[in-house]
Structures are given as structure tokens and as C-alpha cells.
Amino acid sequence: MKKHLLLPLVGFVVLVFSVLFYFSQSTTKNNSKDEVSSLIFETPDFYNNKLINENTMGDFYIINFFASWCKPCLAEHPLLMEMKKKDIKIIGINFRDDEENFKEWINEHGNPFEYILRDDGTIAYEMGLIGVPETFFIFNKIIQKKIQGPLFYEDVENYL
Amino acid sequence: MKMSKIIYKLILILLLIFVSAESFAGVNELSDYYKTVRCLVCEGQSIQESDTEFAINLKEQIQKKYSSGMSIEEINQELIKIYGEEISFNPPKNHILLWGTPLIVLIIIFIFIRNKIRFFRKL
Amino acid sequence: MISILGNSIIYISLIVTILFYINYLTKIIPSTTVSLRLIYFINLIPFSLLVYAFSISDLTLLNVVENSYINDPIFYKLTSAWGSHEGSILLWIFLINLFGVFFLNKNQTVEIHKNIIFISSLFILYVLISSNPFTYVEANENILGLGLNPILQHFLFVIHPPTLFLGYIGLIIPFVISAHMLVNKNFSEKLFKEMLIWSKISWFFLTGGIVLGSYWAYSELGWGGWWFWDPVENISLIPWLLNTALIHSLQVSIKSNQLKLWSLNLGLYCFIASVFGTFLVRSNLIVSVHSFATDPLRGLFLIIIITYLLAVTVRLNIKSISNFNEDSFNLLSRESFLLLNNIFFICSALVVFIGTVYPLFSEMILKTPVSVGAPYYNFAFNMLLAPLILFMAFAPQINWGKHEKKDKQIPFIIIFSLLISLLSYYFSNNFYFALSVFITSPLFLKSILVLKTNFKKNISFYSQWLAHLSIGFFIIAAVCTEQFDYEENLIFEKETSNEIKLQNNKTAIIKNIKDEIFQNYKKISVDLLISDGQKEKELSPSKNIYQPSGQITNEVSTTNNLFSQYYATISTIESNKVGINLVYKPFINLLWLSAIMLVFSIFLSVIKKR
To answer: Is A153 exposed, middle or buried (0-12, 13-18, 19+ CB in 10 A)?
Structure first.
């Protein structure tokens, strides 16, 4: 191969790849889910066995995943109780838990939740849960914010 | 020169075989697939290796989807949609720079061989 | 006390280095080996002092408080000395100077040694600015130290980091020799030979370190794998791949006077790659199993060092490129095969580099975090290394310069190995296994033929064959382990069942569960029996609970079956049930054996030269 052909060839390859690269950039959109999984409105409440009606939840509500075996959940629990006092609606989702332990936990520490669903992991999967506790803030049926790990006062200050 | 030509062809054919061999590289088993799913709460582990609640749940969910007739490819698409591309150790092929590197590298190899070895310069 | 002593020695060594440089430039008194030796010895002191402080648990040092526990066994106290970031940078300096001392016995050229001293003083500056282990802290009776991370409390971890570091830092000698050759335009064969020996020594430690690390991950992490394509592992692989290329290209430079600039550049980049590796790990830019504390200043300083080294490399290249002839090979010659080897190795290093850095790039520029793992590397490595291994069988038999004699064996060997691989595909029904058999069997066949005819050759011939052969064994073992392993998750309910039937018709039985208390941990172990009616295999996986952190580690238990292994860990242990994760790993021992062979082969070729 002639020496003077080499450089243009390399240049051409680089050009092709940079063009392809440009297009690949436009196809990778942020595709994280921002709608609430419909499963939440298809699973009956643990205590009164009713389905949750999304339309009665209002403009703003919170979904909180918790479990009795999870220690950080206990840390954020007082904050949730306080939010309940301020009339913020919270859907509690009990993630992969033993039924007896769960009941005991709620009886011992109090129930800050409007509704409680028990989940074998399916809802968590659809919501893209990473671990408990995890909290979703929903405005107008769209997830605006999610907090992984326990809530702190600063996180919810604006809503109190 | 005849012998050399045969060897040259042999090299090309072998390279072709190895490149095409990669098309066989599909994940056809569930446990093989688990190895390509990253456990997001661990550091660098796949869900196959991890015992965290996240990994166990994900394995169960994938198992459920798989037995309900979804293909691995569809499950993978759904996982990426929910958790983002970070979930998979096997990045989507539209990361051209990443997947293109081995191919660019092959081109470089070709150019080098042509330049350094007297025989190929004539071709 | 040690704090003051350590700090003052670091300052003294900097001052002595500066004095040495002033003297070197002004030439007031001629620089001698005595002055070099003095500087090397001064620089050896700080790390020795730190080790001493750890051995007596001097809790007035912040570093000791943070990284060791007063009741740890002495063995692990010493490990703590390089378990932390500060300690490992001191170890880095210690080893640079250790290599300097040994190199001084072989070569007394001051121009070369002044570069070693300069690089070492850069790292000493780094210690002073951002990671000083001799920080003083008020001793307090209640402070007993935080303890070494339990997963690092393993015999292998005592020797793994120093070995790997010896490998990384051994590359400094080829680096300074190449730099010296390029500056002085003195391309003597003697210096190339010296470079070869030192790069082999470094290769010995690098391979050893990587294997030890891999074995540590296999036996300690309890994930059942031996290579995870973890960023830290990748980073050690890049210098290894480049160094392998260097060893091969140096043969061409010495024997046929070609590829000289090529080898010298490889020599430069090898060391840069190892510094870069340290930078990536230490700055914590990339998440991995090995997590260290983050400090942007540390990363910045290492970036400056790397940029400096790269700038030097580029400048040397530009200045000396006119001194080299264009390389030109015959198609059928040893040189062209070695060139091919080099290109493949360098490209693999490039692929590993891109794969390691890409997630960082993607997150910062494309704003989409991605994970690059085994599927990518498998794709790239199969493509690049498979042809290489095929050639490995024939290349050592090709003559230098021009190969005239026709080898009639080649077609037969290829056909024969194709047959074997078809047979193995028929029996195993596994494409990868068949492919690996196809690429390695020429090597095995050729070995039998060659060793039969050339029985009386020198050591270097055997060491080279052994190295290539062990790569062949390694490939077969690795593919078998990955393709034919199987895993079972056994759950034993305590009251109802203590026996479970396995897939391969054996039974797993729990004998008993016991608690033991040791010096710094508590151990809960399960005795498990695997029997097939006649023979019984015992396993006792355990969970250790460490003081003072309360951290729990999974201890693996294995039992051998010639080349295969049962690998058991406890997945859950509750009051009423016990979960055991049992993995069957075929040919895993062959893998370790081939790695030992590989390390031994280079050892042979190094002692031959001495």
C-alpha cells in the first residue's frame, strides 16, 4: 500500500466512526420510567382489601417502600409519621417481608400510611427499586423525584 | 511465493472464522444471563454472584418473566428500560466507540502488517 | 516519635535529592555510585519505619489507628502497612529504590540512575503533598484502632500487593533504559539485553501478582469466579499485556536489529500504564471491589506525573525518529510472527483500556451510565487472542530472517486439530469448548513433535515452550471452568431434612453446625458431606464475624477431585434453616497449575541469564 494512501484511510475511518458516534448519541435517551406502575392500583390494600383509586389520590402523593427487616426504614419512620400528621398521602409498599413480622412492626411503630400493599417484589421490579427504603414523590401522576435510602428532614422540608 | 499466498489466504479465513464465531455468542441460558446483569447495590458484582435482596428479587422476577414465555432479549430490553443501561454488563451495541474499538483495532493490525512485511506491500 | 522521624527522613531525602541534582548539573564533584547508593538507602527508610510502627502498633500515627487493630495478629498488622493508600504509595517508593539498588549492581551509568531518583522524588513529593502516613495523632487509651478490612485478612493478601507492585515498578528499569537510549542515541545491543532481563523480572512478578490476586478473589470473595473484569484487575492486565509484547519485540531488536524504536516505545508505555493503573485505582474514579477513599488532589497529582511521563515519551520520539531505519520483514520469518504477536498484544491492551475507561467517558460526556463487563471483553479477546494462540504453535519453529525450509507438518496438524475439535464438539455439544480445542491442539501436537526431535536444547528453549504450553493449558482450563460449571442452591430445613439429592446423583448431608471464637473473629461453620455411596467429600464453609467492626465475611470451603473442585459458601443461616451455595468447578485446578507453570517458565529464563 502506498504511504500517501494510509493517512486518508485512517482519516476516513475516524470520520465514519465519529459520524456513527454522533448518531449513537442521539439514540441513547434517558429512558428511565417516570410513570407509576399500574400494579399499584391493581393490588388490594392489606387491611381493608380495597383497590386504590388513582383519581382520589390528588395532585401529590408519596410512595414509600419499606420492610420490617430493614433498619434504615426505622430511621425514617418518625419523619413519615410527621408527614401523616400534615395530611400527606403515603402509599406504603411492604417489600418481601414475613407477614407476622410486618404486622408486628406496624403495631409497634405505628402506621403512617394511607394504604399498605404487600409486594413479593413484582411492584418493586416495575418501579425500578434498588433497595429499601426508597421513596417516590408523585405530582400529577408522574414521578418527579425519587430518593434511594432513608429520607432526611431536608428531603421533605418543602412538603411539610 | 505460492506457499505465502496460501498462508495469506489462510490467515484471512481464520480471522473471518473468529469474527463470525462471535455471532454464536448468544446467552441461551438463564444463569448465563444472570451473569450479565449488574447488581446495582453491590460493587461490580453480577446478580448471579450476589446474595443481596435486590439481586434475589431480580432473579425471581426474571425467572417469572422467562417462564411466562418472554425471551431473554425482551427481558433485557425491559430491564434496561426500567433501570437504565447501567444494569447490563453487556452495553447496547449503539455504543459505537466501545464496540467499534476491536474492529478499528483489526483495521490497524491490517495496516501495520501491510507496512512492515515486505510481501504484503506489493498487494 | 515515629511521626517526627518519618517526616524528617522524607524531607532529608528530598534535600539530598536536590543536592544530588545541583551537583550533577554543576559537576562540582563527580557523581559516584556511593552518592546514588546513599540516596537509595535513605529512600528505603520511610516504608521500613512505617512497617515498624505497624508492628508495634504505635497508635500515635493516624495511619496506624485507621488501618490496624491492636489485637490483630502480627501478620495482619504488617499487611495493614500497605493496606491503606498512604502506605501503598510509600511501598511504591520503597520498591522503586529497591530496584534502583539492585540495578546499581549491574549498571553504574549515572544518567540512567538520575532518572530513577527523579521519578522516586516525584512520588516522595506526592506523599508530602497529599498522602502522608506519618500524621501525628494524640494517643488515647480508648482508641484501639479501626482494624484492617476483614476481606483483606487473608494470607494471600499479605503477598499479593507487594508482588504486583514489584511487577509494576520493575517496569521502571526498562523505562529509564529506553529514555536513556533515546536521549543519548546509543542503541547498543548490551542495553537492549539488559532491558530484556529487567522486563522479564517484572513480568515474573506481574504474572505472579495477577495470579495471586485472582486466586485471592476466588478463594476469599466467595463469588465462585476467578476473573471478574473488574477495573482494578483490568488495570493490572494492561501493563502485563504490554510487557508481554515488550519481551517478544525485544527479541527482534536484539537478534535482527529491527523494531528498535518500537521496543523502546513499548518500554516507555509499559511504565506509564502501570502508573496510570495506580492513578485510576487510587483516585477512585472507577467503582470496583477494591474501594479506597477519594481525594481529588491525589488524582490530580498522579495525572500530573502521567502527563509529564507522556510528554517525555512524545518528545523523545520526535527527537530521535530520524535515527531509525524503516523496518522490513520477510513474510515467513520469526520477525514477522513476533510482530504479529506484538500487534495483537498491544491491541488487546488497547481494548482493555477502552473497556475500563469507557463507563467514565459515557457517564461524563454522554450522560448515560453504562457497565462494561465480561460480554464485551469476551467478544474482543476471543477475536484478538484466538488467532494469536493458533500462531503460537508454529512461530517458535520459524527461522530468523527468512524461512526457507518448508514445514510439511503444518497442514497435517491443522487437519488433525480440526478433527479433534469436531470430535469434542460432537461429545460436549459446546461451541466454545470445540473452538478452544481447535486453537490449542496445534500447540500440544507440535510440542510432542518438537520435544521428541530436539531433546537436547538449552534452558531458554524449554522455558519458552513451557510458557507457550502453559498458555494452552490455561485456555483449555478456563473455557472448561466457564462452560461446564454448575451451581446449586441447597436449602436445608433443620427439623425436616439434612439430606439433599444433587443433580449428579450425589447426596449432600449436613453433619453439624458449630461456633468457635478466635483472636479477632467469631466463626460459624457448617460441616457438609458430599457422598456418592462409596466416596465421601467433606466441606466446611463458614461465616466469620470480625472484631471490632462487626463485619461478616463468607469463608469458602473447597474440596478437590483431581482437577475439579466443589466450592461451597453459606448463603443464609437462620435458626431453622441453612442455605448452602454449592458450585462444581471442573478443571479449575488445571487453571492454577498452568498459571504456576507460566510463572515458573519465566523464572527459568531469568535464572539462565544470571
So the answer is: exposed
